[in-house]
Predict the 3D structure of the following.
Amino acid sequence: MKQTILAAHSDGERLAIAGTYTLTLLENLCMLAYPALTGLAVDGLLKYSYQGLSALIVVWLVHLFTSFVRQRYDTRVFMGIYARLAVNTVADQNNRGHSTSIVSARVEMMRDMVGFFEADVPAMFSQLVTVIGSLVMLFTYDIEAGFIATAVLLPTALVNAWYWRRARQLHRGLNDQIEREIEDIQAARVLRLRRHFGRVRRWTVHLSDSESWTWTVTELATIVALVIILIDFTRSPSFSAGAIYAVLAYVFDYVEGLDNAPALVNSIARLQDIQARLGR
């Protein structure tokens, strides 16, 4: 039973998931518009015009309403899916002859899988919209700033590709150990428990160390780009106060989006290992 959230349920559930992701996309588009609208509002207020401010307030209210609806809706959708898939997982894994320890661990992994689609997929939406949208807006305001920001993508992609391969290996070892946890606890032997939790600690530390190295390389690349963009853009006399604010905001959004990449890569690697386990 190779269950995935998008392939193992009814058309109604797929539509419900699509609805949550649509709301998430609308939220992200509103957030992407904030810097540009704020810049227009600042320039307008300096000229005693309130049109830009009015547009900013309207988008803000749309974002507020969308976030309120999405937060109430997605929990109901995904917890309902988890309740059904958990039952199916127990039945399927028992039919395959797995021990209680493995079945229990895989039910918990199914919770993580549902959590991935509830939290991490929207986060990926947000990251893609933020990175791509901010990059497009930087090109709109200043071509040089856009090219400088684009150059950061190469080292970021390389280091995250390395981390993805590393994380897959580490999650395989960690999940192997977790599947033995209940058996080790039932044995109630101090040395066995120490060995088990020591191994869990080791795998977790290796994951954390690998992610920290990935984040550090990404952060160094973005710092260099940020400094160059700030020096280049703020020295130009042809940009208004609102435009300068917008560009700075998009630069910081772009940097933040790239900084979040290692955590998402880690989540994807964990999901891939869980899917492989549920299929055997």
In short: The chain has a mean pLDDT of 83.
